[in-house]
Amino acid sequence: MLETVKYLLGSAGPSGFGSKSTAEQVTHFSPDLTSITAIITGATSGIGAETARVLAKRGARLILPARSLKTAEDTKARILSEFPDSKIIVMALDLSSLFSVRKFVADFDSLDLPLNLLINNAGKFTHEHAISEDGIEMTFATNYLGHFLLTKLLLNKMVETAKSTGIQGRIVNVSSSIHSWFSGDPISYLGSITRSRSHYDATRAYALSKLANILHTKELAQKLNEMEANVTVNSVHPGIVRTRLTREREGLITDMVFFLASKLLKTIPQAAATTCYVATHPRLENVSGKYFADCNEAQASKLASNLIEAARIWSASEIMVSKDPKSLFEPFSGYQT
Predict the structure, then answer these.
(1) GO molecular function terms here (predicted)?
(2) What is the pTM of this model?
(3) Which of 50, 98, 187, 253 has fewest C-beta within 10 Å?
């Protein structure tokens, strides 16, 4: 109850920021970002677009990958209209396709640019059951597996950049508090919804993908530490964004429900704050493997904090990106859900 009150009031936590803080506010005292090159997935709308706008305002060079180049160019134009000196490169990327991820990385490598910051922000909620071209359930393929491969292929570039520049690299995985809604065996459930639409539940599939984002963060943080790499990785819950709510009928009770719900939602500038805080703030130097909400370290679910499960998801992901995904589900099925 106390935490809810603090959230509604926007009370500042140990970081000095809270649920009402905006992306511009949390980056106000950050170092000049003109020496930073950042890749931001899902930057054509919503939280990703605001993240890109604010980082451009602070001077970062941006790489904007997108399925629709036109939409990305429109985003670039909007940022340039506000900050004409911004350095922005638009590139093609479909995160649901492992081929597209590999091509994007090859194209990025050909630019011979450094890479200081990777923000894995893109995500989708797939209402209808669908399978990616690689044979993986679409929500998991887009929200998690594409980002897993993208991070894997860009990691050496980030490690090299950090070593040559002395600037610590940062990876930010955008998750959601909805990750805590998933229970059971992740690999077993992924196998069941990949094989059959009859087991598919859109919300549970989304929760699974967001759980995987946090488990990926946990395992990658350990591996970076073992490598003694000057790169950190953290995951964030941005909050639920305030949008126009539609309703079929009006009335006092309905009005009250919508009023109360609106107080729990964030504006887009507020929702982008935690990502920007974790990506840029000096306080986060050498902090890795953590989960943040409202610009402060938070507690992920028990399953999301399980290091054994994190290692298991990592091993399964390696198989999915390097072999026929259908070979995954038998050896990694732990128990049935």
Answers:
(1) oxidoreductase activity
(2) 0.90
(3) 253
